[in-house]
Structure formats: C-alpha cells, structure tokens
Amino acid sequence: MKDELKLTLDTQCVIYLFDTGTDKPPHFDSLQELMNLSFSGKLVIAITTRAELDLGRDPVPFRKATLFEKLGIFPVVGTSPLPIQSVEGECVPDSDHAQIWAELRRIIFPGLQREDRRFANKAADIGHLVGHLINRRDVFVTNDSVLLKKAAALKSAMNLLVLDPTECLDFVKKEVSERLRRRIDLGPVTKYAANVVHIGGIGSRVVTKTAWLMTEHGYLNSDEYVIVGYNNGGDLMSLSAKEGYKIVDSQSSTGNEILSEPSDKFKRIRLEDKMRNEFTIFCEAR
Q1: Which strand (E) or helix (H) includes residue 140?
Q2: Domain ends where: 136, 170, 204?
Q3: Inside any domain, residue 11
Q4: What is the distance of C-alpha 242 from the center of its chain?
Q5: Do residues 251 and 144 share a domain?
Q6: At how many degrees (to 10) do helices 98-108 and 151-158 cross?
Q7: Cα–Cα distance between 175 and 50 in angstroms, integer?
C-alpha cells in the first residue's frame, strides 16, 4: 500500500511481545495481531533509536540479549539527542527539535530536570515521541499509563495520536477497511480539501497531512494530493495542489496570515514561532 499506516511501538510493547519468561502481558493478543498485519503489508511498525537505550538497562543478560536480537525485525527511526542542562537551568536537547522536546516535556513531565528520579526513563519516553513526530508517523502505541492519560492533551496540542495496543488495533482495522474501500470504489475526484498541521515553530519541518473528499465521505492519500514547501528562512510554508487541480479557498484555524498569491496552484502562510500552525486548502479539478 502506498499510503500504509505507520505505527511506532514503545519499548514496553516490544518487551511484552517477545519476553517469553513472563505471564501473558496486557494487550498481548492485540500486539500479535498488529504484528500479523505488519507482516501482511497492511501497515509498517517501527521503533525509535531510544528502544536500544531502554533495553540496555535490563539487568538480566540473557533476556537483554534475546530482546536486542528481536529489535532487528523492526525498522528504526531516529530521534533527538539526549537533553542537556542549559545555563538557564532548563533541561532541553541540543538539537533542531528542542522546541518539540520542550513542549512534550511540558505536557507529560512538567518541570523535568536531570536530578529527578527516573530522569533517564522519562527523557527516553519523550525521545520516543520526538522520533515519532519528526518521522511523520501515524500512531504511537504504548502501554504506559502516564502517556495514555496525556493522550487527549498530546492530540490537541501536537496532533499526536497515542493509543494502547487494543485501541490501536481497532483504529487500524477501521482505517485499513476504509482505505481498501476507497481504492475499490473511488471515482474521479472533483473536489477535495487538504490540511497540514505544522509542529515546532519557525524552522521546523515537522508536519502531519490529511486530505479528504469534499463530495462524499472518504480520505485521500495526502502525499499525492498536497505538497508542502518552505522558503529559505523557514518562516513561510506553502501548500500546493495536485497537478490538474486549482486552489479555490484556504483558511488557517490557528490565525496565521495567508499571503496573496498570483497563482491558484499554491498558497502560503506566514509561520509563527508557536508549537502548532495549521493550514487548509480547498481544491477543485480544472
């Protein structure tokens, strides 16, 4: 599938899948079914580079070696460096994604400092989510009750979907069914809309994209129907319609300035240095 769903597993889910020395863990059947869907090509499951760091803390050598071997079946996506203590006393990573890291810390672990107990674990949790966001993945799958309690806030502030494995399986089944229906039933697309949520402020390139039909219920492959671009300074973001379509209207729910353009092929907004900038275009066939 060109528009296959992209899931990111946290480390605890990996442990639950492959640590045969434990009783049947929570959501085990759902995790197994998600893996089967991945093997059949209906979705892609990845881990972040933080998973290796997490497993490195396991005090049982044999279990650690077994789990490290199992990591090899997953694609690995990168994340930000570990945080440092700044001169202002703030604990932030020295990277291009510092603002994203800081916002995640604010939502999940307000006031987190290096001296805090379990700092390394909490910093790794944030690192998983940074990796998930900057690699533009669809669902972060976790058993962590702290992250799940913050799921609504993460979705609202950062358009980040966090689900437990059973919730994720339900979501995936509905999405896969809908995407299959679209490939079978979809006729000519005459009108559509595309929305882009930009995360991380000026200079960031982290976005999530959605495209949908305006004439009936149904989602489209956003990579095909909207192209995102930036100026050299990173303070202007452009959305371009698919070839053969023109932009007839646009709006920004976050109040960003929409620039006047001489062409109906693209529209631009002026990004503001805030965590979330949002832009929607409405398009019709020429």
Answers
A1: strand 139-141
A2: 170
A3: yes
A4: 23
A5: no
A6: 150
A7: 28
What is the spatial distance between Cα 117 and Cα 12, in angstroms, rounded to a whole number?
Answer: 19
Q: Which of 142, 170, 198 is the last residue of a domain?
A: 170
Q: What average pLDDT score do residues 10-20 get?
A: 86
Burial (0-12, 13-18, 19+ Cβ within 10 Å), 20: exposed
Residue type, 192: Y
The answer as to whether 220 is a domain residue is yes
Q: Which of helix, strand or coil describes residue 198?
A: strand
Number of domains in the chain: 2
For 197-234, what is each residue's pLDDT tens digit? 998 888 888 888 889 888 877 778 888 899 999 998 88
Q: Are residues 121 and 244 in the same domain?
A: no
Domain coverage including residue 258: 187-285
pLDDT at 102 over 70: yes
Residue 109 near residue 126 (C-beta atoms within 8 A): yes
At residue 96 the predicted structure's pLDDT band, cuts being 50, 70 and 90, is low
Position 178 in a domain: no
**Cα gap 144→10, rounded to integer Å:** 9
pTM: 0.77
